[in-house]
């Protein structure tokens, strides 16, 4: 993602050392004028000259710099990612020294009604910097951070500052958020789970009918499994010549059969009580599992995955093998909100529509199928026609449906539950930066963690993250 600043505002402020300079210069000037001490006047002149040089040098430096932000194409919760800043010096003669970049990030909450609420005045600062930018060259600064919560985040405005050479004044340029491309956004996708090696077999080895086929043709013969002796009918391309020369007999590579998977994932973001912490943790686990499966399966060129989410809204994405389709699925999961009455009947209809009845259905839910059917029968306010049990019967008759309850103990055969439990227990904001401790941000679980590296403190640069020399 490439952004360049269009409109900036320039500011100057005295540092602590600069205030001392002004005080001493004023004292020397007044004292020399009253007492007639020429040395005090000369000293005052030197001090004023230093302030003028500082102001002119820092102003020229800050005006000659153009900054652009580079956000990653993909960012996942609980996974460190890097935000990079391109700092270009447009000057032709002089270098720019000790440039600091300050950015802010806010969590954006979009409700089911379509209204967007930003985190108000509660922001998290990001800081990085570079030591020197030569004339006519480009330098890079980076900031590594971890988002503890999925969703949409807004960056900007960006503040670029320098106090070189004497640290008497800090000249800064602040981008205008409303008129600058630097006010950008990024979707932080749900946290990816650690799947066990046999997760694909656990997912697909159902009593019959998952839509998959095995094939062994083409340039990619599947994942390498091992070596074995030559058998009649083996392709000469599979011969492992190094092993053949060592043992004196033909040895060929053996591959796992590549499976073609055609699935439709349906996420049931059911939360019995919107104030229940355990309910929200179960929803987050279901969303993370769906994101992990969608990510892993969509990366395979032989698989097709569709996604339907049922929460505060019903959304669907048809199957596709392109990166935009995968990003769209992950964006849907990153913005999914839990609901106490998800419209599963409507979601099932959407699943049948996007899959054209050809894909197998995997429902990832926070409750069992019986509980979902009973809840649907009790929900007399449902606006969907039809019955959930009858809609699921078509998939069940051809044994092409699987219901995954995240509370089921068999889930541990798929994923590493230790990492899941550790993550769920850390959602109280203990990993966040201790910069803002307001109750509103704490309720959102302190969604940003900055990975900082200690450097030498100065008046101009006090906390630098990812300094590039």
Describe the structure.
The protein has 469 residues and is α+β, with helices and mostly antiparallel strands. The chain has 3 domains: 233 residues, Immunoglobulins (Immunoglobulin-like, Sandwich); 170 residues, Rossmann fold (3-Layer(aba) Sandwich); 33 residues, no CATH class. It is 29% helix and 29% strand. The chain has 11 helices and 22 strands. The strands form 4 sheets. Strands 2, 4, 6, 7, 8, 10, 11, 12 and 13 form a 9-stranded mixed β-sheet that branches. Strands 14, 17, 18, 19, 20 and 21 form a 6-stranded mixed β-sheet that branches. Helix 5 links the parallel strand 17 and strand 18. Helix 1 runs antiparallel to helix 2 and helix 5 runs antiparallel to helix 6. It starts with a strand and ends in a 19-residue tail after the last strand. The N terminus and C terminus are likely disordered.
List the helices and strands and how they pair.
Elements: E1 2-4, E2 8-14, H1 16-35, H2 38-63, E3 65-70, E4 75-76, E5 81-89, E6 96-110, E7 116-118, E8 124-133, E9 138-147, E10 151-155, E11 159-162, E12 169-175, E13 185-189, H3 199-204, E14 212-215, E15 224-229, H4 241-247, E16 251-255, E17 258-268, H5 277-298, E18 304-310, E19 314-317, H6 323-334, H7 344-355, E20 360-365, H8 369-378, H9 388-397, E21 401-405, H10 417-424, H11 439-443, E22 448-450
Parallel strand pairs: 4-13, 17-18, 17-20, 20-21
Antiparallel strand pairs: 1-3, 2-12, 3-5, 5-9, 6-7, 6-8, 6-10, 6-11, 9-22, 10-13, 11-12, 14-17, 15-16, 18-19
Helix pairs in contact: 1-2, 5-6
